[in-house]
Specification:
The structure holds 2 protein chains of 2 kinds.
Chain A: H1 2-8, H2 22-41, H3 43-47, E1 49-57, E2 70-73, E3 76-79, E4 90-93, E5 96-101, H4 102-112, H5 116-126, H6 130-135, H7 142-168, H8 174-186, E6 196-201, H9 215-218, E7 222-230, E8 237-242, E9 245-248, H10 271-278, H11 280-288, H12 290-342, H13 348-355, H14 361-382, H15 386-397, H16 400-411, H17 416-423, H18 445-458, H19 462-473, H20 480-488, H21 491-499, H22 504-517, H23 521-529, H24 532-539, H25 545-558, H26 562-570, H27 573-580, H28 592-611, H29 615-623, H30 626-633, H31 639-652, H32 656-664, H33 667-674, H34 680-693, H35 697-705, H36 709-715, H37 722-735, H38 739-747, H39 750-756, H40 763-776, H41 780-788, H42 792-798, H43 804-817, H44 821-829, H45 832-838, H46 845-861, H47 865-871, H48 875-881, H49 888-901, H50 905-913, H51 916-923, H52 929-942, H53 948-954, H54 958-964, H55 970-983, H56 987-995, H57 998-1006, H58 1011-1036
Antiparallel strand pairs in A: 1-5, 2-3, 3-4, 4-5, 6-7, 7-8, 8-9
Helix pairs in contact in A: 1-7, 2-4, 2-5, 2-7, 8-12, 10-11, 11-12, 12-14, 12-16, 15-16, 18-19, 18-20, 19-22, 21-22, 22-25, 24-25, 25-28, 27-28, 28-31, 31-34, 33-34, 34-37, 36-37, 37-40, 40-43, 42-43, 43-46, 46-49, 49-52, 51-52, 52-55, 54-55, 55-58, 57-58
Chain B: H1 6-19, H2 25-40, H3 44-47, H4 53-64, H5 69-79, H6 89-101, H7 104-115, E1 122-123, H8 125-132, H9 147-160, E2 168-169, H10 170-179, H11 194-205
Classes of the chains: A mainly alpha, B mainly alpha.
Chain lengths: ~1050, ~210
């Protein structure tokens, strides 16, 4: 990007804009693609913070940032990711945008949709030397080294793109001229809107080389002459097209005659450019028809020229790829073969290896080559800072893999994405450090036996292959040593090759081994690298059921990481696996053949279970018609079938479409039924599926109707199995959102058990337990139960935690408990309100809001609440300042709390000093009904002090409040009427209200059935009326 | 034989389907007809006895896709129960019943008989070497080109010789195969694969009344 940007990109004459040229277009496209994919391809490098941010004027708006990576506050956007100084890595305050990392650049482009190109262009225009900004003045550090390499590659690629057009620059061809003339002719006409009057060649004769100019002129590179009549230039333009460009003949009829030098005007690169300069009408019209005139010729021209280049480019690209692959391949082989060699420096056994002559000559050559590269590399680093050298060295002498990796990356920068891809994998299958029993001073005899067997495999016919495969199976294949031995001696290649043969017994034998050893994550990766998944997916089509089963089971093992799952999908594996599910397991006694079909379906479900951990695969399973098949298999009586089926379903239940299907296809009944089975794993998956689905009310009702609540409560007693407990408590939590279910839980004495689970449990259990208690506590009779079973204390204790999900639930539960005065006494004794108050400082808006909501009932029910609140040093200032939050729920909750606080006059005086009045007034323009309600309440309560009532009027809070009466939410009406009544005690406010048509609205409210609303509305009208009367009296005495 | 009339064939089929498992009368009839068709092409003199070795091997090769000479000879010997160097119609139908529809036990017996080259009730080391001699690509670098074969035979023996007497008895073989079905044809291909079986049956049993 350094060199290419400064040299290749074409800047406009004033050097602050990019020229709109095909070359720039190509370069921008390349940069765009590169940046857009950067986040996925180089996840680690993408996180590195730039030395200086890239800043530019963007056309993006806050509404474009639809992603949970950002916090949107009205027009401005802040990324949730920030640096050490807690500065957001992306900040937008339109039109200025500041970005600190490739991760956000990449994400931004993905969000930009059709504005992508524009953004890239604006960014480059504003940041002429991005490399300097990214790396700063110092040389890149080790981490940045990778990033530097990646960017270097891009730069090289850009240069290669740039060189092509430069080579042909200024070479106009007859064909290009013809295309352009044809295009211009299309814009000629007679109407008002025509762009040109006419375009014609001076000669109709075309020479075989495509030129029209006479041969003696062709010698000078001339192609043809044109006569163009524009709408606004006189005289008609006489134009010559030369291979070096187009120019005007000003004196074609002059004395100079045919042989006079015709080159009078400036040379333009093409006809359109010339016309734009000569004819203002053309320039204007062409701007209007921009897309038609400007783009078409340029793309057509590039197209034309490109056809010549395409082949060449294709080839270079191909060979580049090829080369890279080779290097990578070698590196990989090297990795596989020389793994022990890497440790050779330290450990004896590998030396012995060598002495024994067991390293093939080929390996030795590789080894030497590697060594020389290694030393070279160290030399290279010698010129850099000694620190980096040391680091590299230590890397290398340490465990073999990181060293090898880094050396590979340095040698084959292009191959980097291969690694970054795997590092982006899910947590469930992290790249494990290459391991080999360190203590293996003598390689075990098994190693040599395996090596021998693999050697025979390579040269055996079908019969011997089967014998050798069976013998290989006799090794303890669950042992990592054996797994890695098979890989290290090249056994995986052979096994995977066998899958491509026609010999069914060889395929079965090979798969039986692959199935076993693929429980090792390194083996999984190698199988995927060697293309094993593709072959196994195609084996799913085989008519042999045993073979299908083995392939599906092996896929189930291999597809434990993201790339593998994607490969399965991309090769049509999901559809085939779903087809495996299609068996008819009904009927009590099954024939042998049916049993095999069921087994096939089971293996298919196993594979789908692994695959379903990727969102795209969930969708693919659904589209392949998997849901009804899973629903059918869910009726199976076999546990080994049910586990993968329910496992898949609960995995997929993260998707709305599945949750609906689980409900509508009648699966809740089966899930509930299996809650009572005798297999904890199955019970866990069922509970987990219910957990995910029970956000939906109808699903919750179904769980109750099928009698699922009792077994859930029974499962609470399986407290040793934490995974099961987490799933069960989760299901109980979500089910308890329905009050009918809470009643059932009461009946089953679930609350007492839940309270017991408040201590000594892992957080994922606690979150759910507390969530469930919070829901149950919405029913007042449960408040006493929680207290009596000793739940208040552990709940309050949990307020000191740090897990945000847990804190949200704990604050909610404590708040619910505080509605009971007896509970409140305990909470007060435990200093619970202070703990809640300090959670207002939590960085998570959800925790803030939840804490503020919980504070409300505490203030309401605590004895001497005013005194208590005052005792929190800085507490009132803290809560008032939360009115600056951008989060609507935080604002609503804080308003509610302020309304409660303001009931104590002394406290009201304090918060008034902290500026609560203008801050509340500032929020009045909201359209959010929840916020409106609590805001109106807060305003009503805050009017009670000093001149606050007047101040609200002065701060412009009155007019917006009047509008609240038009809201559709009745709870807004009551609070608003109360606020208006308080405000109407100031005559000026009455005038404002009246001007805003409040009377008519209030008259409607007086007719309400809500007495408080009635009274407040009537009193407000009375105040307004009284003022009017007084006014009349004053006027007319 | 070629002159065998309808009545005769029916009687024979009746008898055979009682003696031989897996085929009903109609199927037995089809097989008998097919057999006489196969014989018809043979010289009259030999036809009286049944299929000779060459003809039988041709059938194994062309119809059942076998390629290994040793194996084909052995399959012929096992089919030819009375050792008269011809496969009679009864032997043919009996053999096919295992070939096409044999249970695992029957197939184990069949394969064992094939692999027990000298018929002494054991598969010996030497017999294994004989059967596996072409199963590995010879490594020119090795001192003893047969070392690999001997090794594979040792592997097989180790896997199969349950009673450690250095040879594989029928019971050894049976245990091995029941434990790992893949080893049924451990020493060479001597049974047709599923596809060939299907084709053969389709051909032999299609619309029997047309014959």
């Amino acid at each position: 990007m350094g060199v290419a940007l400064s040299r290749a990109i074409q800047w406009s004459s004033d050097a602050d804009k990019l020229e709109d040229s095909p070359l720039n277009n190509d370069l921008l496209t390349e940069i765009l693609l590169f940046t857009e994919e950067f986040g996925d391809r180089h996840p680690q490098e993408a996180r590195l913070k730039f030395s200086e941010p890239l800043q530019w004027k963007t056309t993006l708006e806050a509404s474009d940032f639809i992603s949970d990576l950002y916090d949107i506050r009205e027009e401005s956007v802040m990324s949730l990711g920030y640096d050490d100084n807690r500065r957001s890595l992306l900040q937008l305050s339109p039109p200025d945008i500041t970005v600190y990392s490739f991760y956000y650049l990449s994400n931004l482009l993905q969000l930009s949709k059709d504005k992508k190109m524009k953004e890239v262009q604006s960014c480059l225009e504003a940041n002429r030397e991005p490399m300097k900004k990214i790396f700063g003045p110092r040389s890149p550090s080790i981490h940045e080294d990778e990033l530097f390499n990646v960017l270097q590659q891009l730069d090289e690629k850009l240069l290669s793109i740039a060189v092509r057009p430069i080579a042909r620059e200024g070479r106009l061809s007859p064909a290009a001229v013809d295309i352009e003339v044809d295009l211009l002719k299309r814009f000629c006409g007679t109407g008002e809107n025509r762009v040109l009057k006419s375009v014609r060649y001076t000669s109709d004769y075309v020479f075989s080389n495509g030129c029209r100019s006479p041969p003696w002129r062709q010698m000078d590179g001339e192609i043809c002459s044109l006569i163009i009549e524009t709408c606004d230039t006189e005289p008609t333009l006489f134009i010559t097209c030369n291979t070096s460009g187009v120019f005007l003949d000003e004196e074609i009829n002059g004395e100079g005659g045919e042989n006079s030098n015709r080159r009078k005007s400036e040379v333009y690169k093409d006809l359109v450019t010339l016309l734009k300069n000569m004819s203002t009408h053309f320039a204007k019209a062409s701007d209007e028809k921009d897309s038609a005139i400007q783009d078409v010729p340029s793309t057509e021209k590039t197209l034309h020229v490109e056809t010549v280049d395409a082949e060449e480019t294709g080839q270079t690209l191909k060979s580049y790829d090829h080369e890279e692959k080779n290097v990578l391949e070698k590196a990989r082989q090297q990795l596989a073969r020389n793994k022990p060699g890497g440790r050779k420096k330290k450990l004896e056994p590998s030396l012995k290896w060598k002495n024994l002559g067991l390293v093939s000559p080929y390996d030795e050559a590789e080894e030497k080559a590697r060594k020389s590269r290694e030393s070279k590399r160290i030399l290279e680093y010698g010129t850099k800072s000694p620190a980096s050298e040391n680091k590299k060295k230590s890397n290398f002498s340490g465990s073999s893999l990181p060293g090898c990796h880094s050396s590979q990356k340095i040698k084959t920068p292009g191959g980097a994405d291969d690694f970054s891809e795997s590092s982006s994998d899910d947590e469930e299958d992290e790249e494990q450090p290459e391991r080999r029993a360190e203590a293996a001073t003598d390689l075990p005899s098994e190693y040599w036996q395996i090596q021998k067997l693999v050697k025979y495999l390579k040269g055996a016919n079908q019969t011997a292959t089967v014998i050798v495969l069976c013998s290989l199976r006799d090794f303890n294949l669950v042992q990592e040593m054996c797994q890695l031995a098979i890989r290290d001696v090249g056994g995986l290649e052979v096994l995977i090759n066998l899958l491509d043969t026609d010999e069914i017994r060889c395929k079965i034998g090979s798969l039986k081994i692959l199935k076993e050893i693929s429980c090792n994550s390194q083996i999984r990766r190698t199988i995927a690298d060697l293309g094993g998944l593709q072959t196994m997916v195609s084996i799913l089509d085989s008519p042999d059921k045993e073979l299908k089963c083995l392939a599906a089971e092996t896929i189930a093992n291999v597809a434990k990481f993201r790339r593998a799952r994607r490969t399965v999908r991309q090769h049509g594996g999901i559809k085939r696996l779903v087809e495996l599910l299609d068996c008819v397991p009904d009927g009590v006694s099954l024939s042998k053949e049916q049993e095999r079909d069921v087994e096939v379906a089971r293996c298919g479900a196993l594979a789908l279970w692994s695959c379903s951990k990727s969102t795209w695969n969930k969708e693919a399973i659904r589209r392949a018609g998997g849901i009804p098949l899973l629903a059918r298999l869910l009726k199976s009586p076999q546990k080994n079938m049910l586990i993968p089926v329910v496992g898949t379903l609960q995995e997929c239940a993260s998707e709305e479409s599945y949750r609906i299907a689980i409900q509508t296809e009648g699966m809740i009944e089966d899930l509930v039924k299996n809650l009572s089975c005798d297999n904890q794993e199955l019970q866990m998956h069922c509970a987990s599926a219910i957990f995910k689905c029970a956000e939906d009310k109808h699903t919750r009702d179904l769980v109750r109707q099928y009698g699922g609540l009792k077994p859930l409560v029974v499962l609470l007693n399986q407290a040793e199995n934490k995974q099961l407990l987490a799933a069960t408590t989760g299901a109980i939590w979500k089910c308890s959102i329905s009050m009918e279910n809470v009643a059932k839980f009461q009946e089953y004495k679930a609350l007492e058990i839940l309270v017991r689970l408040l201590t000594d449990q892992p957080e994922e259990v606690l979150v759910n337990v507390v969530g469930a208690l919070g829901e149950c506590a919405q029913k007042s009779e449960n408040l006493a139960i929680i207290r009596k079973s000793g739940g208040i204390k552990p709940l309050v204790n949990l307020l000191t935690g740090t897990n945000q999900a847990l804190l949200v639930n704990v604050t909610r539960a404590v708040g619910a408990c505080a509605t009971d005065p007896e509970n409140m006494v305990i909470i007060d004794q435990l200093d619970g309100v202070r703990l809640l108050w300090s959670l207002l400082k939590n960085p998570s808006p959800e925790v803030q809001a939840s804490a503020a909501w919980a504070i409300c009932p505490c203030i309401e029910n605590a004895k001497d609440a005013g005194e208590m609140v005052r005792s929190f040093v800085g507490g009132l200032e803290l809560i008032v300042n939360l009115l600056k939050s951008q989060n609507k729920d935080v604002l609503a909750s804080v308003c509610a709390a302020i309304a409660k606080i303001a009931k104590d006059v002394e406290n009201l005086a304090v918060i008034t000093d902290h500026g609560v009045v203008p801050m509340l007034a500032n929020l009045t323009n909201t359209g959010d009904d929840k916020l409106r309600r609590y805001l109106a309440e807060a305003i009503a309560c805050c009017c009670m002090w000093g001149s606050n009532c007047v101040s609200f009027g002065e701060a412009g809070a009155v007019a917006p409040l009047v509008r609240y009466l038009r809201s559709n939410d009745p709870s807004v009406h009551q609070a608003t009427a109360r606020a208006l009544f308080e405000l109407s005690k100031d005559p000026n406010n009455c005038i404002t209200m009246h001007e805003n048509g409040v009377v008519k609205l209030l008259l409607v409210m007086i007719g309400s059935t809500d007495e408080i609303l009635q009274e407040a509305a009537a009193s407000c009208v009375a105040n307004i009326r009284r003022l009017a009367l007084a006014n009349d009296k004053a006027k007319y005495g | 034989m070629s002159a065998m009339n309808r009545k005769l064939i029916q009687n024979l089929a009746e008898t055979l389907c009682k003696q031989v498992k897996h085929f009903d009368k109609a199927e037995a009839e089809c097989l008998i007809r097919q057999f006489s068709g196969l014989l018809g092409e043979q010289a009259e003199r030999r036809a009286a006895h049944g299929l000779d070795r060459v003809r039988f091997r041709n059938i194994l090769h062309n119809t059942f896709g076998m390629t290994d000479d040793v194996m084909m000879d052995r399959v012929f010997r096992v089919f030819d129960k009375d050792n008269d160097t011809y496969v009679s119609v009864k032997e043919w139908v009996e053999g096919l019943s295992v070939f096409l529809r044999g249970t695992l036990d029957e197939k184990i017996k069949f394969c064992f008989d094939v692999y027990d080259l000298n018929g002494d009730g054991y598969i010996s080391r030497e017999e294994m070497i004989q059967m596996l001699k072409d199963s590995l690509i010879r490594q020119p670098v090795e001192e003893d080109p047969d070392e690999g074969i001997k090794d594979v035979v040792d592997i097989a023996l180790k896997k199969m010789d349950y009673d450690h007497d250095g040879k594989v008895s029928y019971s050894d073989f049976e245990k091995t195969v029941i434990d790992e079905n893949l080893l049924l044809e451990a020493f060479g291909n001597c049974l047709p694969d599923a596809k060939r079986i299907l084709l053969f049956e389709q051909h032999a049993f299609r619309e029997p009344h047309e014959h």
